[in-house]
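Box S1 | Example of a co-folding query
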Amino acid sequence: MADLSVKLGDLELKNPVMVAAGPWTRDPASIQRYVDAGAGAVITESITMDANQASRPYLYRNGEQIFNTKLHSTLYLEQWEELAAGMDMRDCKLICSIWGSTVTEVRYLSNYVQRLGADAVELSLYAPIGSRNQSMCTSAEHIADVIRETMDAVDIPVMVKLPYEVSFFPEVLQAIYDAGVKTVSSIDALRGISGVDIETATPNMPTYGGYSGTPIRPVALATTAMLRQYTPFYICGCGGIQNAENAIEQMMLGASAFQFASALFSRGERLIRDTVNDLQNWLDQHGYRSVEEIIGLALPRMTAFEAIPIRPIYAVAEKECDRKDCDLCRQGCIYQAIEYVKGKGYRILEDRCEGCGHCMSVCPENKIRLGGIPPVSYRKRN
Amino acid sequence: MNIRKIAERAGVSVATISRVLNHPDLVSPETRERVYAVMKENQYTPNWFARNLTQKQTRTIAFIYPSNDSTFLQAVADGVEIVALNKKNLVFLCHTNGTAEMEREYLELMVQRNVDGIILFSSRLPQEKIEQVAGLGIPCVHIGREGADTERKNCYINYIDAAAKLTDHMIQLGYQQIYLLLDSMLVNEADEIKEGFELAASKAPTKLETDVYVADRSMQGGMLFAHRMIQAGKMPRALITSSARQAFGVMKAARLAGIRIPEDLAIASMTDSSVSTLVDPPLTAVDRPGKRLGMVTARMLFDCIENREFATQNAQHVELLAKLAIRKSCGNRKFIYELFE
Ligand SMILES: Cc1cc2nc3c(=O)[nH]c(=O)nc-3n(C[C@H](O)[C@H](O)[C@H](O)COP(=O)(O)O)c2cc1C
Ligand code: SF4
Ligand code: SF4
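Box S1 (continued) | Returned holo structure for flavin mononucleotide
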């Protein structure tokens, strides 16, 4: 049986399955459910100095797209303290997410949650919801100050929740690293508005929301890959993860552990149990001895954009097609390189094809592939 | 030696150590014994868990504050009471009308009542008096920045930052003549507001014409000020008042004189009010985290009452930031009706 334990900075997790900060971890009783389901670590909803009232509704779902306007925990610190006493974390790690508007506030809170029994603190630097004041990402120096004060206030590891919007700034990442942070959770929800009812000119939600769920998974994957390539952080991948397969993708791009967030709206704590099992089975079936072996495994197969070889390939119709009812390949070819000839079906005009790949990706029947040598006329041009 | 190392050596989580110290009954006897053994071996004494139980407690605290005539102060008192109630404590609410005599009288009454701790809001008492209370072993936490260089524990809103933000907002709207109206009752806050105002003005892209006046914080104060300015022909293009009520007074006087807001006079206030959105045009104002201020202060006090070591190890001063509630009186033309920044 493959070993599931992972090292996450100074934390040792029994498995890489984590639960992200959010209302699903709003209180100790909710956290206990994920502990009982076998999670390696659970992160509390972000705890603040004053309990926020939740707006109602705070969740706007549009298929796989999930938007929320929920900001921070609704419990007072004293309630957390009282309730935490009854919690049995066993071998699961408790990470307390905190948010404060100033260095001194964050310092106070981090000390408080350490006293509550946190194994680590996660600093929430930013929220896609609310005013700019909500954000601690004003400058690299400010972030570094907050982190240094927090480190000074507690003995436990300090992690940072790194929003997508910040993951691009080398000076911010450097400041976070220099301040002593070893682990980052990335990404937070993006900022989004679900849509506008154009008949009444009214947005579908009253304010900006956090945008999460399956559609943001590619953004999260890219962020993980980038962080892994450019920084020495341990990464907790988060964003759009729905199952063990998605989790393995995250780890193969460099995450040491991963977090479930809005997927819990679909499957609850069962998701944790299933993922631990599925991950174990997958690793065993593929002959891995430890889950840590897959961290970053796919990265060497990535290529820099600049290094992608330019190959003279174009579309080739592998099978004949006469499906006028579909027509997706023809409609989608911006080079007008596909035509329909009555009686003969679809044809690729090789001298026009630029090999962009759209038709191949869009064909529901996999009838088109890229390959071949370019037509003579193509080579002649220019 | 720290709690994490103890956890590592005992092979348990930090949470378990915390439970062993706070609620040993909830931990299995074997684990408990193992943790105790590791702690003993490493000579680890977790001071900040040791509750101060030697003293008899009355489970009451006092909140001594200048007046209860503003939504802000009510929010602060609300925050204090929430934490006190969470801690199963009662609060004596004592309001002093902003006078040092009443403050002293309340302080003495509260000491006689054996309260476990005292919160002083913008105290006007001399340092000796406060030290005297401290000498009796009664913890005190202050609201307000003053005395931040002393041993005092305090929690405060950063008015320099708030005033700078509001002034900067007015500068961004393009005003080149911005005056500040201070509150004659305030001392320390007024200095901070002025500092923030001047700081932002000094960073303005073009040279600003600024001036600073003082008036009573009431609506009457604002009206009188405005009348005088209008008569003297000195009303500026943009004005920042210290209180929402001053702003309402100015708006009333302006209306009587046919001055349009914000077209002729843009106005914004350093404090918000529950009726800011009801006046026409709605008042742009600084939105202070009153409830949070009350809660944090009360927590700092309870940290001292319950657990002196933790309190000293934890923050001595906690600073909070205010937001801007950008409405219409400042001339903001952005589309979102009420914008918080
Ligand atoms: C309703 C809701 C509330 C959230 N609250 C928090 C929070 O309090 N603190 C935090 O750091 N992240 C919070 N998040 C962000 C999630 O932890 C996670 O980073 C984000 O949803 C992306 O992951 P996902 O696509 O798997 O949902 C929240 C997300 C949702 C949907
Ligand atoms: S590869 Fe691109 S250019 Fe070529 S046929 Fe397909 S869609 Fe058109
Ligand atoms: S997309 Fe595929 S199935 Fe559809 S018309 Fe083109 S070749 Fe046929």
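The longest strand of chain A covers residues 93-98. The mean pLDDT of chain A is 92.
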